[in-house]
Amino acid sequence: MTLFLGAVLGAALGGGLWLAVVAVLDARRTPIAVRVLPYVRDLPRPASLPAPPSSSNAFSGVFGPPLQAAGRAVEKVLGGSASVRRRLQRAGLDADVQAFRVEQVLWGLSAFTLAAVPSALVALTSPDRSVPLLVFCGIAFVIGVLLRENRLTAQVAHRERSILQEFPTVAELLALSVAAGESPLSALDRVVRRTSGELSAELARVLAEVRTGTPLTRAFDQMAARSGLAVVSRFAEGIAIAVERGTPLSDVLHAQAGDVREASRRALIETGARREVLMMVPVVFLVLPVVVVFAFWPGLVGLRLVVP
């Protein structure tokens, strides 16, 4: 018995030492993915490759297939996958159309739940209202689905406004770097490292593509194709043409920054003119009636006192 116990303990000790040695050797060996990841992690994933596997959990395992089926049903009903894909690119989102449809289903289910809770309470007290309440819950689901699409459009508009606000500063910094003697690629790297924002993220993507072998002009052409703004398209095309033909890049960037500032100034003036008309609404419908009442009320009271 003592010999058997000693053999078991020796085997356990040997197995533990062997596992420890294997773990140490494996930890000292750097995986190829870790060595390559810093150079490719900021690159866009080609559409031809499958999406990376997401972290599996109980929720995705149980509710994932029904949600994906519901997303495909929403896609069949609404359609417009090309428009959705284009807006996802303009919003700077990494999700594909299928993932966006699943988000729409989740938004619809949330709206359905918010409408179903009070509807169930009402249906318990008034069973004859069950059918209208069920229709109301269905309408809430549809509204939730459409709200997610409206939210995507709002995200696109917000990102484009941010890019327009950042563009003059980024263009001026690029122009100063180029005028100081740096190459377009070095100037782009300097500006990306010292700025943050939506336009800086787009330029970082261009820089990552250039560092992995894509020509600078082609990377800027792809940026112009992704962007929904004419200003950014002109900016990308101007840099591409300046690099190809050797034209003065700093003058082009200064001119484009000035054009954007002038366009922003005109938009601000137009917005102010529209707000001026809206400001007349409280004046006409609130302030002016009160002034008229204060002006004529004493006279009306005096007439009532004088006339028998």
UniProtKB/TrEMBL annotation:
GO annotations of cellular component type: plasma membrane
Keyword set includes Cell wall biogenesis/degradation: no
Keyword entries, A-Z: Cell membrane, Membrane, Transmembrane, Transmembrane helix
TM helices/strands, residue ranges: 6-25, 105-124, 130-147, 277-297
Compartments (UniProt record): Cell membrane
Domain Type II secretion system protein GspF: 172-294
InterPro entries the UniProt entry points to: T2SS_GspF_dom
Protein topology in the membrane: Multi-pass membrane protein
Database matches in PANTHER family: CONSERVED TRANSMEMBRANE PROTEIN-RELATED (PTHR35007:SF4), INTEGRAL MEMBRANE PROTEIN-RELATED (PTHR35007)
Protein name, entry field: Tight adherence protein C
Native species: Nocardioides scoriae
